[in-house]
Design brief:
The chain is 38% helix and 37% strand. It is α+β, with helices and mostly antiparallel strands. Keywords: Signal.
Length: 239
């Protein structure tokens, strides 16, 4: 190996150590502040989802299915007449299973079949809920499933909740930094800590004179973030 090559290699190694030492020093001198924040947005649901079941029991599957299909068809026509479009009605879920009963000897034996169709409806005008339930019961549905009140623009409200969470984290960071003789110089990272999960809360005000008894209440969409801020001492900023 020539003398010039040896010198070049030596210089390269020295520079590498100097660079590594500088990086370590810079990282050790860096001041950061990690703060969590939470935000929320409240809104009254503007739509609801409800489920109806139409059921027939007997010993002839074809006849039972025909009865279920006919009732389903009439129900869909009634819903259409109330302004509910086909895209907001799902009626494809059909279940068929054997029906069992105990005989006089205490033994379980099959006694025909149960044919059941599930009809899911998205109601874009929740104020019509009571009328729709009355209509469905009059049409001959077997039972009504759980009703879910929903917000159509849930994702948009969640994005606003995220912004509110960041603003809260920044406000907390500014106060803590000031108490420690520091000031914020920037935002290094933001990590989302939650998904959109509405929490049902009671409405603050209700119109007691209303003849409607099915009220949706209010939903609150919450979000949480973890934010890392960069800081510097207040004396550094004065220089």
């Amino acid at each position: 190996m020539t003398q010039s090559n040896s010198k070049s290699r030596f210089l390269f190694i020295c520079l590498a150590f100097l660079t590594a030492g500088f990086t370590t020093f810079a990282q050790a001198d860096e001041r950061t502040l990690s703060i969590s924040g939470s935000g929320s947005v409240s809104a009254i649901p503007d739509q609801m989802s409800l489920t109806f079941w139409i059921e027939e029991r007997g010993n002839k599957l074809s006849s039972q299915k025909t009865l279920v299909d006919n009732t389903t068809s009439r129900l869909i026509n009634d819903l259409n007449s109330k302004g509910i479009e086909d895209k907001d009605i799902r009626s494809y879920q059909l279940q068929i299973y054997p029906r069992y009963e105990q005989n006089d000897d205490g033994k379980t034996e099959q006694n025909g079949f149960v044919v059941q169709r599930e009809v899911q409806v998205t109601l874009l005008e929740p104020e019509n809920y009571d009328d729709i339930i009355d209509l469905a019961l009059a049409r001959g549905i077997t039972r009504v499933g759980q009703v879910r009140f929903e917000i159509s623009d849930q994702q948009g409200l969640y994005q606003q909740a995220l912004i509110n969470a960041y603003e809260q984290a920044k406000n907390k960071a500014e106060r803590l930094a000031a108490a420690a003789g520091l000031e914020l110089t920037g935002t290094l990272s933001i990590a989302e800590r939650s998904m959109s999960r509405p929490m049902v809360m009671q409405m603050a005000e209700m119109n007691t004179r209303s003849d409607k008894v099915s009220l949706p209440g209010q939903q609150t969409i919450e979000a949480q973030v973890e934010v890392i801020f960069s800081t510097q001492t207040q004396s550094d900023s004065d220089n």
